[in-house]
Structures are given as C-alpha cells and as structure tokens.
Design brief:
There is one protein chain. The chain is α+β, with helices and mostly antiparallel strands and 161 residues long. The protein has a single domain (4-20, 30-60, 73-160), classed as Metal Binding Protein, Guanine Nucleotide Exchange Factor, Chain A (Beta Complex). Helices cover 12% and strands 27% of the residues. The protein has 3 helices and 11 strands. The protein has helices at residues 4-9, 32-38, 41-47, and strands at 59-60, 63-64, 74-78, 84-87, 91-92, 100-101, 109-114, 122-127, 133-138, 148-151, 156-160. The strands form 3 sheets. It has a 6-stranded antiparallel sheet with strand order 5-6-10-9-8-7, with no helix packed on it. The protein has a 3-stranded antiparallel sheet with strand order 4-3-11, with no helix packed on it. A hairpin with a 5-residue loop joins β8 and β9. The structure holds zinc ion (ZN).
C-alpha cells in the first residue's frame, strides 16, 4: 500500500503554506500503534486518518468536543503532541459548526493541498510538530487574514489562561 506520506509528497504546497510538507520529517514521529496508544479512537481517526467530526455536535465515534462554544481566553493545543496551535484572540464564530480561527500561532501549523474530495482542491492544515491533521483552511475568513482555519474540536485541547 502506498504510504500517505509518499502520496502527498507529489501534490505541491498551498500558496500560503507556512511549513513545507513534501518529504518532511516531523519532530514527533510515532508508529501507528504508538499513536493508537496515545490517542482516543476519535482523536486517532481525525489526527492520523483525516476523519472529520460532525458539524455543531462536534461528535465522532461517540466522542464529543465542547470547544466550538469555548469562549474563555486561552490556548488551544494539538491533541496529538500538546503543541500550542491557536489562541482565543483569533477564534471567531464562523457559523459553520466547527471551531474557527483566522490565524494560527506563528509556526505552529503547516498546510498542504488535499484532493480527497475528487476535483475539489482544499487546503489541509496540520500540526507542525507531529503532522496531525487538524482541519482545513478556507479563504472566506474575517480580517486581517481573510482565512478561516476550520478545525476539528476533537483534534485540540484547551488550556485557559
Ligand atoms: Zn501535534
């Protein structure tokens, strides 16, 4: 079976990519068994296998995230490796049903083109440290970036200030 890494290596980078992906080694690289040990089934499905939780209920495989409605000041971290990836100051209500941010913490995420929906190019966003899939970036966000980082709540943890 062709590895996902080899597959994505041929796809090129999004124009606003912040981290190179092709051939990239991540600081944290675990085996599938080690990831399954570390993550819940839903976290594994999303972070390591590109699943997407349901909109609004933010449910997947019986697990739910409450981060869509989190309004406290604080830091959102990668559920895979605890890297701080988003701040509450950039979170906004996109009315799409997923936690949304107009920017990530500098250097914390990377992007690549995602062609899993046939003929539709989407920009996948992942953790820069462990490569975990977080969600997608769309170009319909608010100022100042005009971007919407549409993130699976189950891919993150939240640490209040
Ligand atoms: Zn991570």
């Amino acid at each position: 079976m062709i590895s996902r890494r080899a597959f994505v290596a041929g796809l090129g980078l999004a124009p606003f990519a912040t981290t190179a992906w092709a051939g990239q080694q991540f600081e944290i690289e675990l085996t599938e068994a080690e990831w399954r040990e570390r993550l819940t089934p839903a976290q594994f499905a999303i972070l390591r296998d590109h699943a997407t939780e349901r909109a609004y209920t933010n449910e997947h495989l019986g697990e739910r995230s409450a981060l869509l409605n989190e309004e406290r000041a604080g830091t959102y971290t990668c559920a895979g490796c605890d890297l701080p990836i988003y701040r509450s100051e950039t979170k906004y209500d996109s009315r799409t049903g997923w936690p949304s941010f107009w920017d990530a913490i500098e250097g914390a995420v990377g992007t690549k083109d995602d062609y899993r929906l046939l003929f539709i190019r989407r920009t996948e966003v992942h953790c820069a440290r462990c490569g975990g899939h977080l969600g997608h970036i769309f170009e319909d966000g608010p100022a100042p970036t005009g971007l919407r980082h549409c993130i699976n709540g189950l891919a993150m943890n939240f640490i209040p200030d």
